[in-house]
Amino acid sequence: MLILRRKKDESILIGDNIRITIVECGSEGVRIAIDAPKQISILREELSKAEVVNKDALAPQSEYLHTMRSFLSQRLHQNEGNEQK
Amino acid sequence: MNLITTDYGDIQYSNEDLILFTDGIFGFPDLTQYLLICLDEQDSSLLVLQSVQKPEISFAVLNPLLLYPDYSPALTPEELVSLEVSDVGDLSYYVICVIKQDFKESTVNLKAPLAINPQTLRGMQVILEGSQYGFRQKMDDFLPDSDNSENRSDADADTETEKR
User: What's the average pLDDT block by block, 10 residues per block, for chain B (164 residues)?
Assistant: First the structure.
């Protein structure tokens, strides 16, 4: 892995048509500007994680869902005393 | 209107029940219309977010405050503007669950909740920046095992659609 030090307003070039520029550095984070061809996908990493988690959650099996629901409601109601509506 | 779902039978709904996620949810950018289905009229602990456009697409969701009364998502000002509210407290939240066969292994995504404006029924899935919440928090971690949880919120009841 290549590790570089860059300052504000400095850039790096990746290949012929990707330029990454440091716009702002601060304790809260770094703002970067990315110039790249439209067809190149650019994602915050956590966004791609969020996609994977959503896909894992897709269409839960109904038997698991019902087991989960009764377990949840049992546990939650247990802890509420008897104030079930 | 009638929706024939893959997993939950026929659902009657009207346009006012539709929750609109203008940008979709992560991984499903083209699916913007959903219904929140109550599996059991007596019990709204676990709900289903059902796509109207694709009957096979659904997610189990729950109100995070049920498990975690202190849950306090911090949305960015831009996110609040696009949901047309001024305060995070004006929103309803649901978290998506990954349900496993062993239900104690099931996880909830507290890091990327669904935030819904209950007045307009517009929603968006957000990623909470720098939060202590995880994408896959074990559900069992939040289940109270002593009687220290009493804040059940019923604030979201009006965004639910009953299954008939």
Answer: 85 91 94 90 84 94 88 92 92 94 88 96 92 86 54 42 46
Check CB contact under 8 Å for A65 and B96.
no
In a domain, residue B148? The reply is: no
CATH number for the domain including B26?
A: 2.30.290.10
Residue B162 lies in a domain: no
A17-36 per-residue burial string, b: 16 or more CB within 10 A, e: under 16: eeebebeeeeeeeeeeeeee
Domain with B22 in it: 2-142
The predicted pLDDT at position B142 comes to 65
* Token pair of B5 as six digits: 């779902």
* Domain-embedded: residue B28: yes
Q: Do A79 and B149 touch (CB under 8 A)?
A: yes
The predicted model scores a pTM of: 0.78
Query: Which chain B residues have a beta carbon less than 8 Å from that of A45?
Result: none
Q: How far is A58 from chain B (nearest CA, A)?
A: 5
Residue B44 within a domain: yes
- Cβ B58–A79 below 8 Å, yes or no? no
Extract the tokens encoding B100: 């496993």
Give the nearest chain A residue to B66 (CA atoms): A76
Q: How many domains does chain B have?
A: 1
Q: Is A4 helix (H, G, I), strand (E, B) or coil?
A: coil
